[in-house]
Amino acid sequence: MKNKKRKALSAVEYIWLLIVVIAVWQIASNLGLLNPLTLPSPAMILNTFISLIKKGTLQKNLLISSRRVLTGYAIAAASAIVLGILMGLSTHFKRMTDLIIQILKPIPPISWIPLVILWFGIGEKGKVFLIFIGCFFTILVNVVDGIRRIDVKLIELSNSMVIPKLKYVFKVVIPYAAPNIFTGLRVGLGQSWMCVVAAELVASSTGLGYMIMYARQFGQTDVVIVGMLMIGIIGKVMDSILMLIEKRVIRWK
């Protein structure tokens, strides 16, 4: 019984600010302090959410955006981890690749949109590329940093035991750098959602970004907010899944 009360209290503590904000927001709307055209009430947003669900519009756009995010993110994560390990283990390779990475890294993903349209058109490949470029460097930097933090004594011990290179990577390098790798993966996941929305705002006829832009053109603020909230919610769900995986993989953290 005490455990149930403790869990309930923890849940309330976790979402109390959200509950307060929604309550104040609804009260202000009921008192006529907020313009429903610019900031609809929570009740109106909930009704719009249910309506979009019934029509199937929200699910369709959510699935399309999620597929784009997961595709670009998976390619970025795999390539960043491989390249990061090579850069972390080889000083020469890092020196060869460092300049071009340092030049490309600060460029905002949205700046790539004109080139992406020229290279890939307005199809799926361009959107996947934007997601890839948006989260690749964040993951890469964290992987390299994690490898660079490996204890020198651990490296010397591995060398003295003449451990095969591949075994050294999987048994020493990746486990030691795992906390940094997961940090990069989590931050990169959030950035991938920013990139897909930016891509869909500019050149798309589907997805949550397109739904938001289309609703804005017709002054449908409630639909805009529903789209934004869905991005936040699905992003949080994906991040929580990644956290659970991290806890299982890095049991010592």
Descriptive report:
The protein is mainly α. It has two domains: 1-32; 40-249, MetI-like (MetI-like fold), CATH 1.10.3720.10. The chain contains ten helices and no strands. Helix 3 packs antiparallel against helix 4, helix 3 (57-89) crosses helix 9 (208-217) and helix 8 runs parallel beside helix 9. The radius of gyration is 23 Å and the shape is globular. The two termini are 30 Å apart. 28% of the residues are buried. The model has no long low-confidence stretch (mean pLDDT 85).
Q: What integer is the average pLDDT?
A: 85
Tell me the number of strands: 0
> What helical percentage do the residues reach?
over 70%
* Second CATH tier, the architecture of the largest domain: Orthogonal Bundle
Write the layout of secondary structure elements.
Layout lengths: L1 H29 L11 H14 L1 H33 L1 H14 L8 H8 L3 H25 L3 H9 L4 H38 L5 H10 L3 H29 L4
Question: Summary?
Answer:
With 253 residues, the protein is mainly alpha-helical. 83% of the residues lie in helices and 0% in strands.
State the main characteristics.
253 residues; mainly alpha; MetI-like fold
